[in-house]
Automatic annotation (TrEMBL), chains A, B:
Example GO biological process: Mo-molybdopterin cofactor biosynthetic process
Annotated family: Belongs to the MoeA family.
Domain MoaB/Mog: 173-310
Cofactor entry: Mg(2+)
Pathway(s) the chain acts in: Cofactor biosynthesis; molybdopterin biosynthesis
Protein name (record): Molybdopterin molybdenumtransferase
Keywords: Magnesium, Metal-binding, Molybdenum, Molybdenum cofactor biosynthesis, Transferase
């Protein structure tokens, strides 16, 4: 058995950053920027008014001063001329500030009569002008890698980057194994259950930026498993679920080995999820997850998500943890890292009483995995502990 | 001017929960469950082995005890018969526990020779059996409304709910207004800039579960705006950006009114984003956002996201806040709620020096909006403050 950290570093060595592709800006949110992009223009491209009002010369601004309005600068169509002493230009938010103007009076601070305005309230010191390039200038970078947020998408638009270089989504093939499984919507026999792991994992991995596809269930025989691996062709990552334990029907390891899988490890010192295997299988990385539903999903969070992140070019590492305070005492932990299902609210972490790795109802109610390090001593109510948000 | 809370309660009165639709399980993650669903089966459907090993009678379990292996119970195909004194059945994880068996010996605790096993290690007290229905029983509910997580999707699969009743996605039409705008990829004139707000908002709203569509830019004339409103036909929510201020070219209010918009409010006591308007326009709700990029996105977070949540049947209310500690002093706030761009790391909130509402570079670096309530006094370094995560 190896540690969780050793398993992760094996896993990272099995994959590499995927190539980039250009996608339309409307599809960029949530994707990972592949290389630095640079603004193709200045923003604003000209000194722009920050308010609706009148552009004048700052040295003429005083209460009761009068100006003659000689034209208008609107957003999209500026005033083409000089503004001289005693003159003003009607100007709107975002419009170019004309030559000669270095102050924008708020319209609320002026009275207008015909083509004459008078300053009727103290206009203050703020010139209400946004200098050219105040937001960004040509060549200003957005650094990669970076998972693009809605605000990033707005910024890319403003920079006129209509096509965005992002990492291709990892193609992940999900194979559940076992004679006991039928697909949702099917009618199970008396000894059968419904395949659930592939559905939960697909949701998890798709949210993380992968493209996961659910393959037909592989039965507990070599031909069926071999067929499933064949259908996985083209995947960057092949994930099997179940059949990786020590039972006589656990054929994933042997069949994968026959198909050329070079095993990197088998068994990790953790709970739930000890029987985890991984290796390289042709062009794909392969991870064998345990078949217990909670083990499969926990290993999805702990191992598969970081692997997906690595393929997307994001920093390779453990899932980030947060801190909360225990609402109960917990006993000392043993020689395996333990990830206990819990609910965090208002900084307080409450463990579920039932921690069996078959209980999807509990996992569905949980929003956190309490991390118990190897050999961690007993912890008391109120202790600050680390957890992974789900 | 009305308060942020008043604006929100007006907004909630403009929309109603959308109808439900049935979708395939593979598309359910992130969608909002429309009504309670119930398990159609027990899980496990039978008492199931939690380990690979041998099923025996608990009262015979003792070190050195011997059993005759009379058959096998595999996952998907149980053992059809009784297990009597002195007998054992080879059993695998997830397989049905045969009649007569109430203890599963771990295979690591036994030696097998031919069809005889001997207990060679202390098997402990754990029977390694999961009772029927331990995870869920027929009729057990998943309560609605609920935004479905990957674990929920796995649970729905296990319950054999292959089609999931969810709220229809709100159809949101996004109209940016202004002669100064061109679409990303176009070549702007010297007085023009690139439309960015619709792209940022689409990303934000799509992530929240809406289906946002970007309409053609409306120019600063009545015909163009009227055409844009016409293209919004069928939307649940029409959002305009810009043109809602007091400038001569701000036509959104007048044109919408001509088209029958019943205005619920105009102007909210907040920064950034004061010139916010909303109303009812035929079958759709209409929100007019300010045109400054940061104002538009902040109002998207503060107002549009809660409205989308309400349409999805989720509880209607303000965005949830978290707490962090200030890394600098901040001055007292005035009569408008102020949402200041900030970066939170390790529980520390650092404000950006530049808070101008035109700065998308700052918004893109920000991951939090510091919430300054109306009339909030000065705050000192180290004070605990509320923020909205971005």
């Amino acid at each position: 058995m190896i540690t969780v950290d050793e398993a992760l570093s094996h896993l990272f060595s099995l994959v590499s950053t995927l190539p980039e592709e250009l996608i339309p800006l409307t599809e960029a949110a949530g994707r990972v920027l592949a290389h630095e992009v640079q603004a193709t223009r200045n923003q604003p491209p000209f000194a722009a008014s920050a308010m609706d009002g009148y552009g004048v010369r700052a040295d003429e601004v005083a209460l009761d001063a009068k100006f003659k309005v000689i034209g208008e600068s609107a957003a999209g169509l500026g005033f083409d001329g000089d503004v001289r002493a005693g003159e003003a230009v009607r100007i709107f938010t975002g419009a170019p500030v004309p030559d000669g103007v270095d102050f924008v009076l708020l319209q609320e601070d002026c009275d207008r009569f015909g083509s004459t305005i008078t300053i009727t309230s103290d206009p203050g010191d703020n010139a209400n002008i946004r200098p050219a390039g105040a937001d960004f200038v040509i060549g200003q970078p957005i650094a990669a890698p970076r998972r693009l947020t809605p605000a990033d998408v707005a910024l890319l638009a403003a920079m006129n980057i209509a096509q965005v270089p992002v990492r291709r989504r990892p193609d992940v093939a999900l194979i559940s194994t076992g004679n006991e499984l039928v697909m949702p919507g099917d009618t199970p026999g008396p000894d059968q259950i419904i395949a659930s792991n592939t559905f939960g994992l697909k949701a998890l991995l798709d949210q993380a930026g992968a493209h996961a596809r659910i393959l037909p269930i592989a039965r507990d025989n070599e031909a069926s498993l071999a067929m499933a691996f064949e259908l996985a062709e083209g995947a960057d990552l092949v994930i099997t679920i179940g059949g990786a334990s020590v039972g006589d029907h656990d054929l994933v390891g042997p069949v994968a080995a026959e198909l050329g899988m070079e095993q990197a490890f088998y068994k990790v010192a953790m709970r739930p999820g000890k029987p985890l295997m991984a290796g390289r299988m042709g062009k794909a990385a392969m991870i064998g997850l345990p078949g217990n539903p909670v083990s499969a999903m926990v290993c999805g969070h702990l191992f598969v998500l970081p692997v997906v992140h690595a393929m997307l070019g994001l920093p390779a590492g453990r899932r980030a943890t947060r801190q909360a305070r225990l609402t109960t005492d917990v006993a000392a932990n043993g020689p395996r890292e333990h990830y206990m299902r819990a609910r965090v609210a208002d900084g307080q972490l409450t463990l579920f009483d039932r921690q069996d790795s078959s209980l999807l109802t509990i996992l569905s109610e949980a929003n956190a995995l309490l991390l118990r390090p190897v050999g961690d001593g007993p912890r008391a109510t109120g202790d600050q502990v680390d957890y992974i948000p789900l």
